[in-house]
TrEMBL record:
Gene source species: Nocardia arthritidis
Residues of the Saccharopine dehydrogenase NADP binding domain: 4-127
Upper lineage: Bacteria, Bacillati, Actinomycetota, Actinomycetes, Mycobacteriales
Top-level taxon in the UniProt lineage: Bacteria
Protein's name in the database: Saccharopine dehydrogenase
Gene3D superfamilies per record: Dihydrodipicolinate Reductase, domain 2, NAD(P)-binding Rossmann-like Domain
Pfam families: Sacchrp_dh_NADP (PF03435)
Amino acid sequence: MTRILMLGGAGQMGQSAARILAAAPAVDRLVLTDLDARRAADFAKTLGPKASGIGLDVTDELALRAALADCDLVLNTVGPYFRFGEPILAATIAAGRNYIDICDDWEPTLAMLAMDEKARAAGIYALVGMGSSPGVANMLAVTAARELDTVDSIVTAWSAEDARTAVSDDGPSAAFVHGMHQISGSIRVVCDGVHVDRPALERIRIDYPGIGRGVAWSFGHPEAVTLDRAFPELRGNTNAIVADNLFIGVCHLLRWAVGAKLFTVDRAAAVAHRIVPLLPASGLIKPGALPRCSPWPPV
């Protein structure tokens, strides 16, 4: 009998995984949590008899401990992970439960990977960053790199068009808060073979075979601090966002506002949530094709 506790299972990211797990024969019971108990229960009803929903505040240590006691596996989709990733994994290890998440912040990724000995001592498995990016992006990068004789640098990237999918009627999602956090201040990348902290949104020139020249912009993400574990010889490793100049201009403005302490990260996320739907579609992604890079700006 496999019992899964899905933290944040009624949220934007959690719902997709919940639908897949509810249909999986290997899953016997699926408990979804959300801050809003009714939201969790209502969504669980759409998934069939395996699923149930409960209200849970993951910052309530006693309530979280009680929920962890009655499961075999924890799937954590509660973001932003720079706030919730470490304490939830620590509680899961203490409870002796296996763990998976889709952590997309580089800081807690490094902190959680450092919990390896504690997880081993507890006899549990913990898989961090098992989403599309990071996760699938890492596997694609490794697969491509292993086809080459040598690998000097890796750039993983995602399209700004993805930000539109994070817009909801419930206000700025954790994805927007994550985004504002990762364009503010410094991010960690591999430069000249070592981990260094650099300002976010630095321009990266790309010459992509079969597509052409363009630019991307550095963005804090776990790929940039984990792929060198598979390829220790890497001289450079960066994650980037592919976007048009208007979108990047908005990002630079919000980065400046946070740095000047005019906005908090949460306030910047709320502003971004309002602005993104108003921006014209850039057409960077075409169905059935690789992403096209935005033109090299003259700056």
